[in-house]
Specification:
The protein is of the alpha+beta class. The chain has two domains: 7-114, Alpha-Beta Plaits; 121-222, Alpha-Beta Plaits. Helices cover 19% and strands 34% of the residues. The protein has helices spanning 27-40, 87-95, 137-148, 197-204, and strands at residues 7-18, 57-58, 68-81, 102-109, 121-129, 153-157, 164-168, 173-179, 182-188, 216-222. The strands form two sheets. Strands 1, 2, 3, 4, 5, 8, 9 and 10 form an eight-stranded mixed beta sheet that branches. The longest helix has 14 residues, at 27-40. The chain is elongated.
Length: 223
């Protein structure tokens, strides 16, 4: 008779980087990358209940397509042995199955009090490497005017049918700084949302052709 192996549900907080061509993956495609990697690494993912169960994994701060990221967070619920869970062994097994451009930084087991939830983002920085000729007085004046504004109303598309609504994005702009040919935009994130990367470019009078490198998200602050 085989002994019964007791298991428990563990919430893993997985931090990773996205670089290169993988920046073009959508939110759903990024999730599938980790689903396939877990399958190849023999990781038992917890599934939801009901008629259409799905893997319990979440990216609480979806990354815009085309944007690199220094520190993404994946919340992943797994079935683990009842004894101590070896996060380093899990990290090595999963990292070996991920494609180039997706690099694991850290894997930690969340406290049991957080087992039913995931973390909430509060702010994030976006780094824009701007070509030298566009780092001019006009851009600096525009940044100054944005930060001095009490409100900034933009028309935001809200569905695939082209419907739009007016959004005041000023509360989402915390700071904008120019530092060594780079513009660092710190954005507030709340349950009401945040500012979109295309809106940041619009406000700065920039587009992708005026950048020297892909936009990168850095320094995410979590609650």
């Amino acid at each position: 008779m085989h002994a019964t192996v007791l298991s428990k549900t563990v919430l893993l907080l997985i931090k990773f980087r996205i670089r290169g061509n993988l920046r073009f993956l959508s939110h759903a495609e990024t999730i599938r990358v980790f689903q396939r990697a877990c399958a190849r690494a023999d990781v038992e993912i917890v599934h939801s209940q009901g008629f259409n169960p799905h893997p319990k994994m979440s990216l609480p701060l979806p990354r815009s397509v085309g944007v690199e990221s220094d520190e993404e967070l994946l919340c992943l619920w797994v079935q683990a042995p009842q004894d101590d869970f070896d996060t380093e062994q899990f990290k090595a097994a999963l990292a070996a199955q991920l494609p180039d451009g997706c690099e694991l930084i850290d894997v930690t087991a969340a406290p049991s009090t957080a087992a039913k939830n995931c973390f909430q983002p509060r702010s994030a920085d976006y780094m824009l490497a701007v070509q030298q000729q566009y780092l001019d007085e006009k851009l600096q004046t525009g940044i100054k005017n944005l930060l001095e504004s009490q409100s900034i109303e933009l028309k935001r598309r809200i569905n695939e049918n082209g419907a739009v609504r007016s959004v005041d994005v000023r509360p989402f702009l915390k700071t904008i700084e120019i530092n060594d040919k780079r513009i660092i935009v710190r954005c507030n994130i709340s349950p009401a949302g945040s500012i979109r990367i295309e809106e940041i470019l619009e406000l700065l009078g920039l587009d992708y052709e005026k950048l020297d490198a892909p936009i990168r998200r850095t320094n995410v602050q979590w609650e």
